[in-house]
Amino acid sequence: MARTTDGDGTPVPQRLLAAATRLFADQGYDRTSVQEIVEAAGVTKGALYHYFGSKDDLLHEVYARLLRVQQERLDAIADADAPVAERVRDAAADVVVSTIDNLDDASIFFRSMHHLSPEKNKQVRAERRRYHERFRALIEEGQESGVFSTATPADLVVDYHFGSVHHLSTWYRPDGPLTPQQVADHLADLLLRALRAP
C-alpha cells in the first residue's frame, strides 16, 4: 500500500491522526465515526485499518505521541548536567509548554480516556506513571540533597503540579493574555517556591 494517496507528501498515518484529532476535539470521540475520519483524511477505511486496528487505536495514539515527546524531553532535562533546582524548573515548565502546544491531544485524552479498551487504558496509565516517576525522582533528588524542603512528600508535589497541567485544557486560550511560556514560567515558579527549603 502506498504511504500517501495524494501529492502533498503527508504519510497516511499522520493524515489519519490529524483528522481524528480535529474531529475528536470538535465533536467528541464517541460522536465521531470511522467514516468521518477517513473522509476528512481523504483515505479509505482499508487504509485506516491497515495502520490502526480500530478507532480505539487512534485515540490511544493521539495521547501516546504527546506522551512520547514529553518523556523524551523530560529524560533529556533530568539527565542534563545542571543543578537540580534548574532541572526541576525546566521540567515543570516544559510539560506546561508541550501540553499547551498540543492542547487538543491533551483535552481529547482527559475527556475520552474512559473510552479506551481496558488493555489500552492500562498501557497509557503505565506510560504516564513512568513519566510521573521520573519527575518525582527529580523532586526527591532535590529533597535528599537539601535543596528542597522535605515538608511535603514528593508524590504530593508531583500531583499538585500535574493537577495544574491537566487543568490547562479547560481554561487556556491561545488568544488569551498569556503565552504558553509565560504560563509555564508562572507555574514552574510556583512549584519552586513551594519546594524551597526554609
Automatic annotation (TrEMBL):
Residues 10-70 form the HTH tetR-type domain. It comes from the Bacteria. Keywords: DNA-binding, Repressor, Transcription, Transcription regulation. Transmembrane segments: none annotated. InterPro entries: DNA-bd_HTH_TetR-type_CS, Homeodomain-like_sf, HTH-type_TetR-like_transc_reg, HTH_TetR, KstR2_TetR_C, Tet_transcr_reg_TetR-rel_C_sf. SUPFAM superfamilies: Homeodomain-like, Tetracyclin repressor-like, C-terminal domain. PROSITE patterns: HTH_TETR_1 (PS01081), HTH_TETR_2 (PS50977). Residues 33-52 bind DNA. Pfam families: TetR_C_24, TetR_N. This is TetR/AcrR family transcriptional regulator.
